[in-house]
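Closing statement on the magnesium ion sub-project.
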Amino acid sequence: MRTLRRLFIVLFAGILFFACERIPPKGAGPASTQPERIKNVIVMIGDGMGPQQLGLLVAYAHHAPHSIYEPVGRKTALERVMESGTLGYARSEAADALVTDSGASSTQMASGEWAGAQMIGLDRNGNVVKTILEIAEEMGKSTGLVTDTGITHATPAGFAAHQTHRSKQDRIALDLLEAEVDVMLGGGLGWWIPQEANDPDSETHRELLRRTGGTIEIRSKRKDNRDLLAEARARGLALCFNRTQLVQSSGDSVLGLFAHDTLMHGIRETRTKEDPDRSIPTLKEMTEKALDILSRNPNGFFLMVEAGLIDWAGHDNDTGTLLHEMIKFDETVALVHEWAQGRQDTLVLVTADHETGGFGFSCSRFDRPAPRTLPGAAFQGETFQPRRNYGEQRILDAIYNQKLTFPEIMERFDALPEAEQTPKALAEIIEANTAFPITEAEAASVLGGETDDTGFYGTGVAFRNNLLARIVSKRQLTVWSSGSHTNTPVPLIAYGPSHVSSRYGKMMHTTEWGRKTIDILSHGE
Ligand code: MG
Ligand code: ZN
C-alpha cells in the first residue's frame, strides 16, 4: 500500500476512533479483558520442506559431533517455535491430483481455494481468486514478499499474481506491480528489464551496470521492451540491487532484486555470511528489513517469506546443500520468532508447500558395526551388535562440510576442456569438494548414465546429480525416492496468542488452513 492511500486510511481510522469514543459500544467490557486483535500475519514457507528435511536438520543439530547448534543447546529455531506454538500437519495436493507443485500450493494457502497444478492465483476452474495479500491491502495493511529464488517464481507469485501457468513470469512481474506489494525482495532481475538491455552497447545496458554496481548479470528474459524497474519507481517503490542499498533504503516500499535468477544457495550463504564484501543479502537480512518496513503501518501487515532453494536441493538429491538450505531457513525462523515473541497482535505460520525428494537416512546391510561390550546387566556375557548399520553420527559433520553443490560440481566438470572430461577428473572434483569420494568406475556410471526412464528425475545433465546422489547415498546412509515432489503431509507450525494458534493443531489441507488464516486476518481473531 502506498503512502498517500495509507495516510488516508490512517486519518479515516482516526476519525472513526474518535467518533466511537463518545458512544461506548453496548456490552463492551473494560479494554484490558479484551484479547488483543491479530493485525499481522507472517507466513514462512520452506519450499519442499517435508518432515524428512526437518529430520535432517534436527539430526544434524542434536547429533553432529561439531554441530553449529552446540552453543544453543543443540536446539533449532524450528523446534523452539513448535515448543511455544502449535504443531499440525498439512496436506498439499492440487485440485483433482495426488501431488502438487509450488504454484497450486501457494495459491491454495493464499486463497483457501483449490487450484490446478502449476496455476497461479486461479481456482480449479480458472477463475481469479482473491489472496490473503490482496485482502490485507484492502484493509489498509502493508504487504511483503521475500524469497531466495526469483520474486516472480511460483511461491511468491501465488500470493499476488493471477496466471494460467507459473512459467509466465514476465506477466507475473506485471501482476506484482499491479498488486501494489510494498516490499518485494528476492532475485529474478531478468524478468524486470527490457529486452534491449541484452545489447551490451545500449545505454540501457550501461545504465543497469552502473546502478547494480556490476554485481548482477544483465540479461533480460522479457519478450518485450517494457522497463518494469522504471514502472516500479513511478509507482513509488525504491529500488535496491545489493545489500548496502537495501540496508540504506529508508522508504516505506521497496523492490530489491539481487540476482539475475536465484540468490545464494545455502552452502555459499554459510561460507560468506560474515564477509563484509558480500553484495547479496541473506534470507534473514531481507526478512529483517521487511519486518522493519512493514511494522511501521499501524494497521498491520501481511508478509510471506520463502526459503525456496530447499526444494532445489531436493530435486538434485543433494543432501549437503539441503542441510545448508535448512540452516538458512532456521536462522530466518529464529529472527521472526524473536520479533514476534511477547506480541499478542501477530500470527506466525511456518510450513511447506510440499515435500521434495522422498528423503531420509536409512539403515543399511553394508558396514555393519563391530560388536561392543555394554555395562548393563542384560549384556553381561553378550556383546551388542545390531544386524544392520544404523549410521554413525560423524556422517552429519561430513555432510555439513560439503563445499560445492552437486550442480556446481557438474558445472566445474563441464567447464574442463573436452579432452579432460574424464571419469577420473569428475572423481577428483568430487573428492576435493565433498567428504564422500567416489571411484573412477562410479564416476563413469554417473557420466554414462542412461536417461531417466522412471519420469521422476531430472532430464539431461540434471540427471547426473541424481545418479551421483545414488552413489554417495551408500556412504551417507541417505536415500532419495524421487527427484520430484511427493505428497507427504508437511509440518504446519502456528505461533501467536494461544486462542488463535491452537486452531492449527491438527491435519488440514492447505485450502483449509488458508481459509482459516484469511478469516483470522479479516476479523482480527
Ligand atoms: Mg518456491
Ligand atoms: Zn520443486
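Residues 40-359+485-523 form a domain with the Alkaline Phosphatase, subunit A fold (CATH 3.40.720.10). With this model delivered, the sub-project is considered complete and its resources will be redirected to Aim 3.
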